[in-house]
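Researcher: Structure prediction, please.
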Amino acid sequence: MAEQEMFVLLASAASLGLIHTVLGPDHYIPFVMMGKAGKWSLRKTCLITAFCGVGHVLGSIILGLIGIVIGIGIHRIEFIEGFRGDIAAWLFIGFGLAYFAWGLKKALRNKSHTHFHVHSDGTSHAHTHIHEENHLHVHAASTAFPGRENISGPSAQQDKKKMSIWILFVIFIFGPCEPLIPLLMYPAAKLSMAGVVTVAGIFMFFTVATMTLIVGLAYAGVKSFRWGWAERYMHALAGFTLFICGISIAFLGL
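Model: Predicted structure follows.
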């Protein structure tokens, strides 16, 4: 009888991990849009998705284990999970608005213009660039510095990109996995702690695998699409998408 119950729980963990991910667009749309805006590779986008997915499930697993070990009632655990969900929603909203504003400012500044340079030896040249991307100042051989390139420093932008990834990771840590604790972990605890760990592991695997698969397929399609003039506004669009995800979680219960 116990083996049958465990089999049912394992099958439920796999199906719930897949279904709750597919039905929650916040599990994949933010990664697709931020990957496109940040010009991430497909590999990087999938790795970041998996990283945040593990954090997303791990937060609920830790809470569930604490609840089982110290005997917290399921209703109190569900209250805590709901509170965590509210935090995640408002973090999505706040981060989305901030990212949208930054992306819009970046887009408005992202206009090409031309600089003219005249050197002491009489040579002159012009180059066209935008301030939001790296560019080279090409000089005549007599004025160039061998082995050096005058490139706009990318360190500030790299720091912003890393910060965005970590903020997204924190948001997903707060985001609860609603079916995991009440439908899987607590019932498995009646059988054995090993069953709890196994069920949680299966749920995590199918959740993260589904997230990564959907993001990989969607990102490949989005990346191949020609955005034209809208390309300048990708960061703003990504921020607006995060904002909508937060609104959907907070007010629509998605």
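Model: Confidence is low (pLDDT under 50) at residues 139-153.
Researcher: Thanks, that helps.
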